[in-house]
Specification:
The chain is built from three helices and four strands, in the order βββαβαα. The protein is flat and about 45 Å long.
Length: about 120
Amino acid sequence: MAAAELVNGFPGKKVEAAFNYFLDESLGGSRVLYSPTASLYRRKYDENFIQVQDIRGAEDNFDLDIQGFQICKHGCTEEIPEDESAIKSAIYAETAEFLKKMYVKLFVGLISHSVSCCLG
């Protein structure tokens, strides 16, 4: 991005993104969600389009203590296993160590995960 203009103090632009909110039961929504099952994909949402700030190129300007989130790049040192127990034993430990180094915490407890992959 050459000589990017500042938007809200950050380089980049605003982009429109779809946000899915829970749909009210009176409009066909459901209060029950069984994740990660196919019901998640059949669920009806209240879709809203909102302008959000594209922060690409300004990732280093965000801090967990100030903005409430931080962008950290980290890759696993080993291939992601398909076995659920292997994920919890290997990947949880590696992720906990990364977070401890990143945020100087004595204890990190991971309680959940989801695995996504590219099918391209």
